[in-house]
Amino acid sequence: MNLERLPNEEKLSLCRKYYLVTLAFCQIFLFISPGGFAFLPFLWLVNVVWFFREAFLKPAYTEQLQIKAYVKRSALGLLLWVAVLTTWITIYQHFRAEWGEVGDYLSFTIPLGIP
Amino acid sequence: CLKALNGQPPAAPAPRVVEREEEEDEEELTLKYGAKHVIMLFVPVTLCMVVVVATIKSVSFYTQNDGQRLIYTPFPEDTDTVGQRALNSILNATIMITVIIVMTLVLVMLYKYRCYKVQINTSNILLHHVYSLISCTLEEVFKTYNLAMDYVTLAIIIWNFGVVGMMCIHWKGPLRLQQAYLIMISALMALVFIKYLPEWTAWLILAVISVYDLLAVLCPKGPLRILVETAQERNEPIFPALIYSSTMVWLVNMADTDRPNRNSTEAASPQQEPQEVASPVPSSPSQDDGGFNQSWVSQQEHRLGPLQSTEETRREIQQMPSARPPVEEDDEERGVKLGLGDFIFYSMLVGKASATASGDWNTTLACFVAILIGLCLTLLLLAIFKKALPALPISIFFGLVFYFATDNLVRPFMDKLALHQFYI
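^ inputs. structure came back:
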C-alpha cells in the first residue's frame, strides 16, 4: 500500500478504520476487561507510524485535520497501553519468584537457575 | 552488455537515430528496472535466510532430533542399512510430493470454480495454526535466552501479531509491514521443515519439488500454469496471501485507471492458505507516469497447506510485460512477485546446510551464493521469455550442487590446507 497513491478521502477512511478496528475489538472483550479498552496497541502503533507523515509533515489539505485527530488518538491509546504493559511486566519480572505457585502458574517459560 | 545488442552505427540518418535512441532508452529502462527488480528480490530472500540461519544457530531446538516427525513422513531414517534408509526417504518424499500435488490441484480447482468461501474459511482456520507455531517458536527462543514470560503478555503479543498480520495481508496495510510479515512467516515454515523433515528426505524433497515446479509451471496442463492464466484472464490478483511483491506500484499505466494494483504479499505460511481472491483490493489509482508504458510483472505462486492437513508449495515466476499503447487502461501489477514457497524452500536449503553441514559457514555461504545466483538467472530468463517461470529449479539445483560439493570436496581441501599451513 503506497499512501501517496491514495486520494485524501481514502487516506482518512483508512486511518479511521485502523483506529476503529481496535476499538471494535475492544467491544468483544468488554466482558473480559471492565476498562473495555482495545487490546491492539500494535495496530495503533502501525496507525501512528504510517500516517504520521501524512498528518503532520505534509502541507494541509481538507481531510488532514481529521487524520491528525485520529493519529493523535491512536498515539494516546498507544501510550496508555505501553504504560500498562510496562507496569505489568515490571511487576511480573520482579515478583515472579516471590509469588510462588501463582507465579509459576502465570509463567509461560520459567528460567532456570537461581533468581 | 545486453544494451550492446542495439548498437547503432553513428552515421545513421537522423530520424532513425532518434527512433532507435528511443527504443534504446526503452530497453535501457527495461533493463534498469530489471536490475532493480533483482535487487529488490535479493533483499527479502536474504533477510529470510538470515533469520532462519540465525535462529538455527542460536536456538538449539531446531537441530535437536527428538524423533518427532510430521505425519507426512512416516518412515524413520535412523535405520540399520543404507538401503533401508534410502528406501524410506524415497517413500517419505513421495508421500510429501503427492500430498502437495493433491493440494495444489484442489486449490486450483477451487480458484477456477470460484469457491471463494471455502478458501476464506480454510484460511481462517489455518491462521490458528500459525498462532501455535509462533508460540512454539517464541517459547523456544525464550528458553534459549532464559527469560521468563507470562501468559498475559504472551497472549497480547500473539494477538496483536495475528490481527495486524491478518489486516496487512488480507486487507490493506503498509507495504513494508506486509513484506515483513511474509518474511517472518516464510522463515517460520522453513524452520518447521528443517526440524521435522529427516535428512535425506529433506534433500530429496527439495530436488523433487524443483522438478515438479518445472513441470507444473511450464507444461500446458500444469496446475500452476492454469492458475496463473486464470488469474490473468480475470485480471485478479492471485491468492493475496501467497505471493511476495516487491513493490506496490511502480509505473502505472494510464491516466485514469483505478484498478487495484496490489498483488502483494501473500502469506505463504503453510498454515495459512489465504485465498481471498474474492476481494481484489481496490483503491490505488494509477498515476500517470509520463508515458512509459511498459511494465514488468512477475508473479510467483506459492501455496502452503497447513501442517496438519497438507503442505504444498509451489512457485512460479511469471512475468507479463505489456508494451501496450498508452490508450489502453491497464491494470498491471508492477514490481516483481515471488511466491512464498520459493522463500520457504530457499531458506530451508540454506538452513539445512547450516544445521547439518560439517563445513559450517563455508557450506552455508556457498549455498546462499548459489541460491542468489540461481535467482538472478531465473529473473534473467524471465526477462527473456516473458512468461511464468518456476523460480525453484535453477536455484535449488545450484544450491544442492554447491552444498554437496562444498561439504564433500571443498571442506576437506580447506582443512588439509589449514593443516599444512598452506595458504592460497
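Residues 28-37 of chain A have pLDDT under 50 and may be disordered. The interface with chain B takes residues 1-3, 5-7, 10, 14, 18, 21, 25, 39-43, 46, 49-50, 85, 88-89, 92-93, 96, 106-113 of chain A (CB under 8 Å).
thumbs up if we can close this ticket
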